[in-house]
């Protein structure tokens, strides 16, 4: 299977029916395909197109008093193009995002639809959201195989991510651990690293996978327009100071049925901003569905 459609959705409802704050929703539709060209030392080259949306709100979306907004409402809508270079024991990825932050990102409209569907109260306060500004971000990642035991049911990968732009500028580093319920696939051919696409030139074939995973990362944030407002438009009414360092934890399960892949994750992020009512961080769930085809 050399092509893939993927739908991913993040929401705090996936871990708590009563929680609705901070990073409260994300939706991502992705198309990926394997390059037919081969290069020396490269196992695979994979191209990716994505449309994504992220939504942020204060500790409670129904707070009308502007003085009680412990972080600003914000929406971020973007399209991106990326290229993934897959080597024997490492993976390099580069993505360019173009989009918009502010009312033009339609965060208010999307949250209204979600709240109507689940019969929640209408969100109040979007008129004070981060103002419109263009979003241009460059993202890169580097993953390196670190430890693999002979039983093929456990491995450890060093992961690094960085991005710079008009919406986010940050760095992170950490470790990704897989515990296989079936023998683990190699790094260059696993749903864990989005490298399971194959054709007649790759020398691999898709195998069933099922594993638990854990990821621990340390993040350093230099700039976050969803909190600070964009430096390209300084008219936002509510802005926050960022907390530069925070910890990230992710625990999940992935299952590969050849053409259909499923993943669920519980994600925790440490406090990203000063002045929050909930200083012990934020947590949400993520559900991902992928369909592979030729």
Description:
It is built from two helices and twelve strands, in the order βββββαββββαβββ. A hairpin with a 2-residue loop joins β7 (154-165) and β8. It has 294 residues and is mainly β. It has a single domain (3-293), classed as Lipocalin. A twelve-stranded antiparallel barrel has the order 1-2-3-4-5-6-7-8-9-10-11-12. The protein is 5% helix and 52% strand. It has helices at residues 107-117, 225-228, and strands at 3-11, 22-34, 44-57, 74-86, 90-101, 133-148, 154-165, 168-180, 209-224, 245-256, 260-269, 282-293.
Could you give a quick summary of the protein structure above?
The chain has 294 residues and is mainly β. It has 2 helices and 12 strands. The chain is 5% helix and 52% strand.
- Beta content comes to over 45%
In total, how many beta strands?
A: 12
What integer is the average pLDDT?
94
**What's the alpha carbon Rg, rounded to whole Å?**
20 Å
Counting structural domains, the number is: 1
What gross morphology would you assign? globular
Low-confidence stretches: none
Class by SSE composition:
mainly beta
Distance between the termini: 5 Å
**CATH fold annotation:** Lipocalin
Reading side by side through the largest sheet, how are the strands ordered? Answer: 1-2-3-4-5-6-7-8-9-10-11-12
* CATH class division: Mainly Beta
- The CATH architecture can be named as Beta Barrel
The largest sheet, given as strand count, sense and whether it forms a barrel, is: 12 strands, antiparallel, barrel
Q: Helicity range of the residues?
A: under 10%
| SS element count, helices | 2
SSE series = EEEEEHEEEEHEEE
Q: Can you identify the CATH superfamily?
A: Outer membrane protein
């Amino acid at each position: 299977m050399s092509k893939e459609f993927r739908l991913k959705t993040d929401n705090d409802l996936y871990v708590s029916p009563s929680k609705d704050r901070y990073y409260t929703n994300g939706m991502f539709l992705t198309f990926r395909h394997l390059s037919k060209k081969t290069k020396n030392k490269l196992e695979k080259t994979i191209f990716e197109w994505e449309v994504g949306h992220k939504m942020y709100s204060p500790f409670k979306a129904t707070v009308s008093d502007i003085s009680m907004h412990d972080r600003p409402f914000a929406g971020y809508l973007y399209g991106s193009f990326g290229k993934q270079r897959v080597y024997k024991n490492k993976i390099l990825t580069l993505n360019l995002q173009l989009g918009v932050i502010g009312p033009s990102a339609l965060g208010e409209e999307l949250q209204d639809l979600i709240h109507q569907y689940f019969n929640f109260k209408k969100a109040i306060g979007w008129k004070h959201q981060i103002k419109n500004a263009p979003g241009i971000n460059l993202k890169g990642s580097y993953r390196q195989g670190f430890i693999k035991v002979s039983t093929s049911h456990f491995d450890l990968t060093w992961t690094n991510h960085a991005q710079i732009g008009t919406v986010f500028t940050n760095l992170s580093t950490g470790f990704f651990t897989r515990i296989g319920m079936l023998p683990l696939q190699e790094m260059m051919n696993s749903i864990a690293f989005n490298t399971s696409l194959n054709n007649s030139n790759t020398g691999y074939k898709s195998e069933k996978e099922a594993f638990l995973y854990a990821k621990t990362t340390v993040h350093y944030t230099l700039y976050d327009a969803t909190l600070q407002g964009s430096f390209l438009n300084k008219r936002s009414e509510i802005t926050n100071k960022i907390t530069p360092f925070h910890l990230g934890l992710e625990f999940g399960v992935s299952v590969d049925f050849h053409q259909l892949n499923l993943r669920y994750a519980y994600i925790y992020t440490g406090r990203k901003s000063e002045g929050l009512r909930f200083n012990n961080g934020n947590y949400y769930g993520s559900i991902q569905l992928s369909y592979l085809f030729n």
